[in-house]
Amino acid sequence: QVQLVESGGGSVQAGGSLRLSCAVSGWSRSKYCTGWFRQAPGKVREGVATIYVGGGATDYADSVKDRFTISQDNAKNILYLQMNNLKPDDTAMYYCAIDPFPSATAGDCRRWYATAKDDDNYWGQGTQVTVS
Fold first, then answer.
1. How far is CA 113 from the centre of its chain?
2. Residue 126, phi-psi category: left (phi > 0), alpha (psi -120 to 50), beta (remainder)
3. Is the distance from CB of 79 to CB of 37 less than 8 angstroms?
4. How high is the pLDDT of residue 104?
């Protein structure tokens, strides 16, 4: 029922930019946590950024702070990740996810994405970002 579809990945040289999109269907809750995660080969999954939909609060991993921006188009139900000044270490498969916890707060979102756990999340299929 709930589907998330990422797009916008690709190959870019260091210092370049990409914008990832996550189209969401079958989900219309007014307040919830959503965000972006990434995983490179041989590395654990890492929470990249989160946004508290309905309040707008955001949080970012230290490794991407000041370079990436997460945003939500509530009307279209699309989650974005603007990625600027990309570095080779940003190379990974990027996934969007939604936390179905029914009473989420901004603080919940910060804790949720930072742990990078599956829990009962809804996940997209991923989009590859390669930076050289």
1. 9
2. left
3. no
4. 87
Amino acid at 86: L
- Residue by residue, DSSP assigns 95-126 as EEEEE--TT--HHHHHHHHHHT--TT-EE---
Q: Write the single-letter amino acid at 12.
A: V
How do beta strands 92-99 and 18-25 pair? unpaired
Which mean pLDDT values do the consecutive 10-residue runs of the chain (132 residues) have? 97 98 95 96 96 95 97 95 98 97 90 86 97 98
Handedness of CA 55, 37, 111, 87 (dihedral sign): negative
Q: Are 21 and 90 in contact (CB under 8 A)?
A: no
